[in-house]
Amino acid sequence: MREVMLVTGASRGIGAATAVLAAERGYDVAIGYRQDPGAAESVAGQVRGAGARALTIRADVADEEDVERMFAAVDAEFGTLAVLVNNAGSLGLQRRLEEMAAERVERTLRVNVLGVFMCCRAAVRRMSTRHGGAGGRIVNVSSVASRLGSAGEYIDYAASKSAVDTLTLGLAHEVAEEGIRVNAVRPGIIYTRIHALGGEPGRVDRLKARVPMKRGGEASEVARAILWLASDESSYTTGSFLDVAGGR
Ligand SMILES: NC(=O)c1ccc[n+]([C@@H]2O[C@H](COP(=O)([O-])OP(=O)(O)OC[C@H]3O[C@@H](n4cnc5c(N)ncnc54)[C@H](OP(=O)(O)O)[C@@H]3O)[C@@H](O)[C@H]2O)c1
To answer: Is 157 a catalytic residue?
Structure first.
């Protein structure tokens, strides 16, 4: 019997790599995406190619109705949800704090914090033994930015990931006796398109000399850490943070 994993923001980057690896490891996969159905369908094709069932669901994680609809779609198509990967995340153009518009900070916090909060809430309502569920695992995609601060680039993003870390810890304790493990990965600088959103597509290559391993990471390397936290291999691990950052 294949377990079901929902990955938010899975149309590209770390989320897409996680969805495809999950299929290869035996999960059926729900692929959340916000705005590119073609990209999401392409990931779904790779998931099906690995022998798994795939479902694409358009949902902005910052929108409460979208989040509820996304989980209802997973219920209807797949039944019991075993793993939630809160991967969807965003950032704004590189700016110093005094030049940041309040609306931009608000949007970053809505997507990266409120989005994770609302997806965790929907997952716990389904997974917790307290609500008659069978348990489950939640893996949040935070960032080493939460402990580095992202000065001169996006302090709002770093602060949002700090909130994800605290949410991870608190929720892990809250549901530890209810069959749910909650952990986070904290990627370093990974080759994905998120850096273009900040206005610097080549950011990984600019910064890689500062990484002890002297290279940027690949989305697949983060996906392997996520899959470990999702699996029974990490059965005694909860409220933990796995940095995937080349030593940074
Ligand atoms: N790459 C890095 O160096 C790095 C480092 C540390 C942490 N991370 C974290 O890793 C996660 C994945 O990022 P990535 O590097 O793979 O970036 P990416 O290539 O930009 O992918 C981000 C994904 O999230 C989706 N997304 C963005 N806002 C969303 C929303 N409101 N609702 C639903 N989906 C949304 C995007 O879809 P749309 O295009 O449709 O918006 C896209 O599929 C993020 O949480 C990011 O903060 C990345």
So the answer is: yes
